Amino acid sequence: MRPSEVAALAKNDCKLPSAGWGELILRRSRPEVGAAWTDGGTPYDERGLKRRARKASRSVPVPPALVQLLRRHLDREGAAADGRLFRAVEGGRVGSNEYTRVWDEAREKALPAADVDTPLAGVPYSLRHAGVSLWIKAGVDPVEVARRAGHSVAVLWKFYAKILRGQQQVSNQLIDQALAEDDAPGRA
Fold it and tell me: Which has more pLDDT, 136 or 36?
């Protein structure tokens, strides 16, 4: 998810079963743009999903580990009055300064000391890139990766081409397997 999609995620948008995969239905976005750039004078804007019709939504499957984290978060913190999962101390939108500070602290705790001053996972948006890269590396069909990420296959190729192109041996094995199945006895 994009940070602006996370900021708008509501409890009603989450299907979080007690076990197995869940689903998030992304319906809106709350990008931080600065008070001078919004009609209401707030530092964020209420919008539809990026590059989609205003009322469009997209479904994102959620792995079991994240389902459990979100369930624990809701049990412990509840939702904001308007249903949002994540809120600032006063109930408003979590600002980029807040989550960037937490991100920097997490990097210092999670990364080896030699990597802390490098660009590795330098910004919270790096999680999105890491997730998309993981899906590609795991062999998820690029069309499905693009759908889950909320962009086109063309955008996927543009920004993740080095990962997509690094799968030649795996691709050859898949093609060999498909050809062998076609040549199997009893197939015409």
Answer: 136
pLDDT range class, residue 31, cuts 50, 70, 90: low
Computed over its alpha carbons, how large is the radius of gyration of the chain?
20
Determine the pLDDT at residue 166. 61
- Contact call for residues 70 and 16 (beta carbons, < 8 A): yes
Per the listing, tokens 């660009």 go with: 119
In the chain, domain spans = 1-89, 94-122, 125-188
- pLDDT of res. 46: 77
Could you write out the three-class secondary structure of the chain? CCHHHHHHCEHHHEECCCCCCEEEEECCECCECCHHHCCCCCCECCECCCCCCCCCCEEEEECHHHHHHHHHHHHHHCCCCCCECCCCCCCCCCCHHHHHHHHHHHHHHHCCHHHHCCCCCCCCCHHHHHHHHHHHHCCCCHHHHHHHHCCCHHHHHHHHHHHHHCCHHHHHHHHHHHHHHHHCCCCC
Half-sphere exposure of 129 (CA within 13 A, CB side): 13
Give the Cα separation of 167 and 180 in Å (integer).
Answer: 20
